[in-house]
Amino acid sequence: MRSVRILLTGVLAVMLLVSGCGVGGRTTSPDSQEADPPPPQVRLEPADGATDVNPTAPVEVSVARGHFEEVVLTNESGEKVKGELTEDGTTWRTSEDLGYGKTYTWSGSAVGAGDTTVPVRGSFTTVQPKEVVRATITPVDDVTRGIAIPISIKFDAPVENKAAVQRALEVETSEPVTGSWAWLHDKQVDWRPKEYWPAHTEVSVRANLYGVNYGDGEYGKADLTTEFTIGRAQIVKADVDSHRIVVMRNGEQFASYPASYGRPGNPELHTHNGTYIVMAKHPVEIMDNPEYGYTDVKKKWAVRISNHGEFIHENEENRANIGRRNTSHGCINLTNADAKEYFHSALIGDPVEVTGSSTDMPPRYAVYDWMLSWQQWKSMSAL
Fold first, then answer.
1. Secondary structure letter of residue 242 according to DSSP
2. What is the pTM assigned to this prediction?
3. What are the structural domain ranges in the chain?
C-alpha cells in the first residue's frame, strides 16, 4: 500500500506543475516590474571639449532612442549659430561656417520613450590661425574677356600647402574645356585651357578657401567666386618679318595693319617670339626708358601685351618706318588711325602671337601663361 501512495503523490505533483506552467507560459511575481526604457543617447560632433576645430568642418548633434525638443549652438557673444533640424527630429546641423578662434556652446534637450529627458550640453573651440591670408581672383564678375585669358588667384602670403588649396578650386564651363591649374610661384596659381577658350564660353569659378590650411599656421580668409564670359575669337598674328600685324576674328581676317617691330640688331630691343595676351588698354600711356634716352613720352591707343614693356601703340614719330623697317624699342608701332582702330577692336585676354624673331621671350614676365607648353604647364600643378 505504501508504494501506491507514493505513486499517487508523484502524479499529483506532476499535475500541479503542469497546471502552473499552462497560464501565459511563465510565472510572475506580484513584486516584479517592467524594466525602464533606456534614455536618449546624444552624440556631439565635434566632441565635447574638442579644440583646434576647423570652422568649416561638419558640426552636428544627433540623438538615438529619441528626438530633440530644442537645440541651440551659441558663440562667445551668445549669438545663435544658424542650423537645421532633420524632419525626424534626430539630427541638427549648422548651416553656416563658424569663426576662427572661437568657443561654441551647446544647449537644449532630447526626449525619449516614457518622456525621459536628457540635456544637450558641451562646447568646443575652433582653430586660431597664426595668420589669415587674403586672396584675390581675376577675371572679376560680369566681364567679357578674350580667348587666352587665364583665371588667376593671387595670395597675400606664400602658400606652403599648395595641394590643399588646389583641391578647393572649381572651374565650371558652359561647354567641355580641358584645362589645368599651375603654380607660377608661391603666391599665384592660374588656370588656363589646353587650347584657347571656345568663343562665347560661360565660365564660373569657385575658390572654397575659407578654412583651408595653407601650412605654417596660415589659413584662408574667405571664399572667392567669379563668373565671366569669353568673347569672340580674336587673334593677332604678328610676324616681325612681314612688317604688319594681321587681326584674325572667328577664323577669318578681320584687319591688317602696317607695323614696325623691335630692332633686330639689339637683343635688348627685339620684339621677342611668344604668345602674349592683351593685359590692359589706355587711350594715352606715358612711357619711360631713360637708358635709351626718353622719359614721360605720351603714346596714344596703347594696348599692353607684356609686363616686360611691350605694347601695340601709335607712334607717328616713327611713321616713315611703319610697314617698312623694324626700328622700335620692342613695341609694335602703328599709325595713329590704325592704332585707334585696333585699340577699339581688342579685348583683355586676346592672344598676340609674335613669330619670326631671332629670340624667344623667357617665361617670367606676366602674363606668360601661354609662353609655356601644355606639358610644362601641367607639370606645375600641385596635384
1. G
2. 0.86
3. 41-125, 131-231, 234-366
The secondary structure of 163-209, three-state, reads: HHHHHCEEEEECCCCCEEEEEEECCEEEEEECCCCCCCCEEEEEECC
Quick one: CATH architecture of 41-125? Answer: Sandwich (2.60)
In sign, the C-alpha dihedral spanning 353, 356, 362, 366 is negative
Dihedral-angle region of residue 24 (phi above 0 means left; psi in -120 to 50 means alpha; beta otherwise): left
Active site residues: 313, 331
Grid cell for residue 105:
556652446
Q: Which CATH class is domain 131-231?
A: mainly beta
CA-atom Rg of the chain in angstroms:
37
Tell me how crowded residue 310 is: count the other CB atoms within 10 A of its CB. Answer: 26
Phi/psi for 268 (5° steps) reads -75, -15
pLDDT of 323-373, one tens digit each? 999 999 999 999 999 999 999 999 999 999 999 999 999 999 999 999 999
